[in-house]
Amino acid sequence: MYDPSMRVLTVLELLQSREEVTGAELARRLEVSPRTVQRYVARLQDLGIPVEGRRGVGGAYRLKPGFQLPPLMFTGEEALALALGLRALTHLGLHALAPAAQGAGAKLARTLPHALREDVQALELSVQLDASPWVVGTDAALLAVLLRAVRGACGVAFTYTAQTAKATTRRADVYRVVHLDGRWYAVGHCHLRGALRSFRLDRMQDVSVLDSTFTPPPDFDAVAYLREAMPEPTAYDVSVWLACPPEGLRGHVSGWNTALTPEHGGTRLRARREHLPSFAAFLLGLDCEFHVENPPELRAVFAQVEARCAEVRSAPGQPGVNGVNSNSINGVGALKDS
Q: Which CATH class for the 4-63 domain?
């Protein structure tokens, strides 16, 4: 960064991102002398930007309170990162933000110089992001309420419907909000259970921020908590050989408690799974040969699936015959690897 004009703009960016920046820090960041920093500040003031200075030991600079400028410059990598991030929002289950992302993308394009604008347009035309079939849609407004509560360290009240239970009214102190394995979670202290708990956002309703506040634990790692808390002790150790290289399985196999290693021209999949029927359906949906090594219970599941398929083949094409819908096997390959 040796262009003086770029250094002047960098001074402005630093002043906008901080309440106050010392002259010594600016000199160190820009690799120039304090006198040169003074010239850069004077240049900004000549352009009508209200930079205020405090003289003496520990002297510092700041922008006049209340003054803000929109971003003045983006590098090529920053512009591409922003464009990709906007496109990826729906792949996090935040479909309601799609119009806002499109509007923000249009504003971004208008602020870019011609060369960068062409790069972003090329990205729009050339890059495809394939949405994972097991990403769970999430209410963006609900997420925004939770984020405000986390920022203010305020408690929340909500209605929660667990998978196998009736809806209950909960109060919680949410420490972090996490996107993991296709779902959004709120993690914090549950007042009903009196312990640390996680809540899926797609099962939360009527979220409101309370007046009560709390002190979150320092350096709380919500991802580590989820990874430790979610696997069930009844999970099966699965070992399956697939006639497909590991790179051909990326994006199709959940990374949750899963290891893929090359073996004999294919892939050895080792995983821990609690629900074997859905995992069997996932394997059937893959367009490759596979051999089950463990557990024996998985082979029993395939025997049950074979019996169901035989019923489907022999039953008339009407729902309700022999208790089997003739279309019930359709789409089995679209089930998530669970």
A: mainly alpha
